[in-house]
Amino acid sequence: MDRRAMGNAAETTALEYLAARGLVLVCRNFLCKAGELDLVMFDGPVLTIIEVRSRRDRGYGTAADSIGWKKRQRIVRAANYLLLRNPELRRLPARFDVVTLDNAAADGGIEWIRGAFDASG
Which CATH code for domain 3-117? Predict the structure, then answer.
């Protein structure tokens, strides 16, 4: 399986996981010049921007470790563009979450990190 297919599979797994916990999908793979947002969902009244990360092994650290400052900045810029294009979403509280999938773990190792970072990166 190539990287793109693995990423799509991880996003689908994360989407199903979050939907089972009551989140509602707004959009998937929002793409703009600033970057890409994997999942945008409502967690009740909160607009939740979700980065999905997956790792086959921990040779280079955990999946969450792979979200550095530059990646967080790209996510924030893409979220700002999403809000610019969708003014009805601007009035909502927003949060940046991360869902990690550790493929080396026996159970698939899904972890949902709420409020993983803020707009300051």
Answer: 3.40.1350.10
